[in-house]
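Pasting as-is:
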Amino acid sequence: MKKRISMLLALGLALGSSTSAFAYSDRNLEAPKAGEVVIDGDLSEWDLSKTLRIDAESQIIDQIEHWDGAEDCAMDIYAMWDEENLYIAAKIYDKDPFVYREGFPLDELDAIILFLSTDPEADGERTEYSATDWRIVQSTDEYDFFNFVDRDMIADNQGYETQGEYGDELVFDDYEAAAVEDKEMGGWILESKIPLHNLSNENIAQLVPEAGMTVGFDFSILDVDLPCPGIHSLRMQSSANLDGKDRKPEMYDVDNNPSLWGTLTFVE
């Protein structure tokens, strides 16, 4: 009897631990290999069938009371790659596009956040960021582009510090971007090229994509209608699936827990 009870206790502990553990979600974005890409806001050279979408109330992780439906805030994202670059494009549905104000943190304005692991061997169940995990905020006022690379959550950042935290900076070398308002769509189109050498240093190896490789990946959209002091952005997260009306970022803490991310797969 004692042996049986011990076995049942062990099984219960195992089941309990499995329900509390996370791993990358099944939200996977396929990224075809890029041909000739012109960064101009025209997505005619993109395979638009390979996409992920944010458009559901369950994907809101902050300021749910400010969401007026998909026409107010939603997003389709696309990716491509070559050995040196990651290309990101997005259709952003926003009735008040390009809300930007000088001197404000990019996390409080219209922006997208990219989450990316540059280590294809990284443990999908890790619950803390490593030096090869990246949180990248991209924003624009339609004419200028801004980057913010957040490294504050990483215990050992291997010499790569936070850059561009307070906006008004373009921290990536050789970065290209274009933003075009599309009134018929009801929003704007973002197209960008991120040279992967920007996500490396003497201690952190540069990611070199190849067909069949999968890495951790996710994305947020941030939306404000007026850049007012103290008003943070409505935020929606691709991999989130939440219930109820009480939504705070720490309830789906992708900013600190990469096991909540989805994935990106490089394909031919």
